[in-house]
Design brief:
Helix content is 5%, strand content 41%. The chain is mainly β and 495 residues long. It has a single domain, classed as Methylamine Dehydrogenase, Chain H, CATH 2.130.10. The strands form nine sheets. Strands 2, 30, 31, 32, 33 and 34 form a six-stranded antiparallel beta sheet that branches. Strands 1-7-6-3-35 form a five-stranded antiparallel beta sheet, with no helix packed on it. Strands 8-9-10-11 form a four-stranded antiparallel beta sheet, with no helix packed on it. The longest helix has 9 residues. Bound molecules: cobalt (II) ion. Cobalt (II) ion (CO) binds next to strand 22.
Length: 495
Amino acid sequence: MVTKKSYNVQNWQGGYESLREEYDYWIDDIEGEIPPELNGTLFKNGPGLLDINGHKIYHPFDGDGMISRITFTNGRAHFRNRFVRTQGYIEEQKAGKILYRGVFGTQKPGGWLANAFDFKFKNIANTNVIYWGGKLLALWEGAEPHKLDPYTLETLGKEYFDGILSEGEAFAAHPRFDPNCEQDNGAPCLVNFSIKPGLSTTITIFELDTTGKIVRKQAYSVPGFAFIHDFVITPNYCILFQNPVSFNPIPFALGMRGAGESIKFQPNQTTKVIVIDRKSLNSRKGENNKRIKILETNSGFVFHHTNAFEQDSEIVIDSICYETLPEVEPESDFRETNFDALKPGQLWRFHLNLEDNRVKRELIESRCCEFPCVHPLKVGRNYRYLYMGAADAATGNAPLQAFEKVDLETGEKQIWSAAPHGFASEPNFVPRSHDGDEDDGWVLGLVYDSTHQRSDVVILDAKDLDKQPVARLHLKHHIPYGLHGNFVNKVFINS
Ligand code: CO
């Protein structure tokens, strides 16, 4: 059976044009009404440049980080975007050409394996943006964060957390915000990790208190090479999936391939599920590995997890899994992606039994999906609702064009689609109040509108996600497909 596609590739490609300009304006082209009680700021990060002065980059993950900020205040909304002034961005803009070898590209020649493991790359600050301890930080998993002014988005320099992080030390782009940390007497805390891959891999866990100080930091060693982009937390554990991949350093060392191209998915190997006891963060050197457990399962490849929680003697984890890792072919252009040839991301639930070390799993959503999020107070806790980007069609692999809500209790699913001309990205859930229902709030999403070569900020009612948006804010320009961001309950505006 031949079904009509919900998209065409030329339309999708338009969302990978660079955005060179930096804007600063009140949004006045609005359909519907911005809820007056929606106050705060949505920060998003992603590759703003997909070329350097016309020289195309090989992979969007290598694109320079650009922050987009949408501030909601008393029924109005303001937009501002600004590139992170990383050293690489400044140098390349001045030179008008590509000077750095990207992790997923092939530019800089030579290089030695050790450099790869030290991530001596251009720190492109393009993966996530968080506001924590009074600091706005642009994150990239290979190196230290860049600190920005939340009012002007000006780049203030690199962040080392009072010297606890050393120069060039990695700090992942996927921190988790524990709403209620036992070790901090119930105050919220930020938990993050970093990876130093090699023949064995060092995983470092960081915990930051509400003032932005690193209060706990501990390194753990696990066997084998690891490529880990995201993790999950519960009140007692950090859980990381060590994907079944191998790293072939030879072509990389010879400068023939980027590091990202040298990672090979090993479909016949199991995924290692690394469970770290958060209490062991305080233990002395030498005894910390006693508090780490490694279980095995089949998960395919995982970039993103949704959430995790403890239930009796189990840890439950919801993750987006790919049957195979889409390999980055040398010299290939990501703009020519053949979606039909790739496997979709699908939502699975894993049950880790900590008594017999067995893992069970079940498929929750087979529709192609990515970029999940949950209510901020449900992080690490038993929860009912999740939101994510999804394909328009129920089967097959396709670009994200919709937002989907899943009720994990009843199995009910709601979908709002921007197909055929619109393309979706990561949604963010914003609760209406602190004590409302778990789905009482809004889902905010950026939708690329290929007909008008612009992006919309879409506000959906999370209780009725499949209804028409509460409001659709038309920007004056497009925003290239982004990665991650966060909503902050604080109004940041500079005009
Ligand atoms: Co990510």
